């Protein structure tokens, strides 16, 4: 009987995990270098903003990590599987040690250490069954997604704004921009790969689908980042007001879609706040049903908002400085956005897998926060399910209609929904 969840863990997956923490540390090191350069130059304003991005993003990661650790350790069949987990959870220290690590902003690194240790045992020593390490890497990819949109993307916007404002770029600023782009690119690739674990092998596609998926995301995010940076260059005091008003509206929209991703009320509102932040830069599906209408509304609204930002910049810009590049820049941003929409359409027409999905009718898309993985009619549920990433996978991949029963962690799937 074929399992719908891909349970192969190879050296490629192990390398991706190791490179994941390397890119994270490179991004963090670049941020600290940028902050130090601003401090040494006496630009304490930029120094404070850069550090605030780092600390706020880190705090958000630790909160999500803590919520998920707490949920996982309370599962009936949970048991430590690595030396790191055993040390952290031994002798009644199940919550206290983990909480202390997260308070000191080390919970995210603990996840990477655990994933690398478990991955090495599975791939090299062939000691353990691969499901657990796959479970761990799914959560890491989700946390990196949050980190990208709460730190790397705002940081990229800030660096572009500073370059435009000063009409020059220094070496450390180019390093920061490079680090942000690498972080965003890696997040998109790793996130896509992580979702693919939830597909049967026969539904998997080659690297072409990942390339197209990466490109349309990059082509749609880049004009948005540029529009925000250009607006900020002419009216810096108003960008905070713009962000807060738009973020609040997007938060209400997330609430109106009745998301059900986390396991507690406060956790769910934290998730909705993060979704609203992601929406400020990029589309992210969070509710079941037909998503074409919601996606169309989102892209129309964000295109109008970005146009207003660009129009405001064009009106208030300094012609002496910008006339030489204003038209090529606007044409490049428009081309990037339209090409991104075209590639997104091509992806969903030609590359997007169609798989069985047990609960939804034909023609319905499923949300980024479903609590089970996609199954074919003959699949059985494994004993360990990462419901969080199973949720994302089921929202991302269009499914055929087929109602089946099943249990995850002893709970009826239909009851969960």
TrEMBL record:
It is found in: Cell membrane; Membrane. It holds the Pfam family XK-related. The keyword Magnesium does not apply. It is a multi-pass membrane protein. It catalyses: a 1,2-diacyl-sn-glycero-3-phospho-L-serine(in) = a 1,2-diacyl-sn-glycero-3-phospho-L-serine(out). The chain crosses the membrane at residues 12-34, 46-69, 172-191, 211-231, 238-257, 269-287, 296-316, 328-347. Signal peptide: none annotated. GO terms for cellular component: plasma membrane. Its main location: membrane. The keyword Membrane applies. One of its GO terms (biological process) is apoptotic process involved in development. Keywords: Apoptosis, Cell membrane, Membrane, Transmembrane, Transmembrane helix. Belongs to the XK family. This is XK-related protein. The lineage of its organism: Eukaryota, Metazoa, Chordata, Craniata, Vertebrata.
């Amino acid at each position: 009987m074929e399992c719908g969840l891909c349970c192969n863990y190879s050296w490629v997956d192990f390398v991706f995990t190791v490179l994941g923490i390397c890119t994270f540390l490179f991004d963090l090191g670049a941020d600290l270098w940028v902050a130090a350069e601003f401090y040494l130059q006496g630009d304490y304003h930029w120094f404070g903003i850069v550090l605030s991005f780092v600390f706020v993003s880190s705090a958000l990661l630790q909160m999500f990590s803590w919520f998920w650790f707490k949920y996982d350790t309370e599962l009936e069949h949970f048991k430590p599987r690595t030396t790191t987990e055993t040390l952290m959870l031994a002798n009644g220290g199940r919550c206290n040690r983990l909480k202390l690590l997260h308070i000191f902003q080390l919970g995210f690194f603990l996840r990477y250490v655990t994933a690398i240790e478990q991955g090495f045992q599975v791939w090299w020593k062939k000691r353990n069954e691969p499901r657990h390490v796959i479970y761990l890497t799914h959560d890491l990819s989700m946390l990196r997604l949050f980190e990208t949109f709460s730190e790397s993307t705002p940081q990229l916007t800030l660096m572009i704004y500073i370059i435009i404002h000063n009409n020059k770029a220094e070496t450390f600023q180019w390093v920061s921009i490079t680090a942000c782009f690498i972080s965003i690119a890696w997040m998109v690739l790793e996130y896509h790969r992580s979702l693919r674990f939830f597909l049967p092998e026969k539904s998997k596609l080659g690297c072409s689908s990942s390339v197209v998926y990466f490109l349309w995301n990059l082509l749609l995010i880049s004009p948005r980042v540029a529009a925000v940076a250009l607006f900020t260059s002419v009216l810096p005091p108003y960008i905070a007001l713009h962000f807060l008003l738009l973020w609040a509206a997007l938060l209400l929209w997330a609430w109106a879609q009745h998301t059900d991703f986390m396991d507690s009320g406060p956790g769910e509102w934290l998730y909705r706040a993060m979704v609203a932040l992601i929406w400020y830069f990029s589309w992210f599906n969070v509710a079941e049903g037909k998503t074409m209408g919601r996606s169309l509304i989102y892209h129309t609204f964000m295109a109008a908002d970005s146009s207003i930002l660009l129009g405001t910049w064009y009106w208030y810009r300094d012609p002496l400085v910008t006339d030489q590049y204003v038209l090529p820049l606007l044409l490049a941003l428009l081309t990037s956005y339209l090409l991104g929409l075209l590639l997104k359409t091509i992806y969903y027409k030609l590359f997007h897998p169609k798989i069985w999905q047990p609960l939804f009718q034909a023609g319905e898309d499923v949300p980024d926060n479903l609590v089970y993985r996609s199954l074919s009619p003959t699949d059985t549920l494994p004993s360990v399910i990462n419901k969080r990433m199973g949720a994302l996978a089921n929202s991302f991949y269009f499914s055929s209609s087929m109602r089946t029963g099943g249990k995850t962690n002893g709970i009826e799937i239909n009851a969960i929904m």
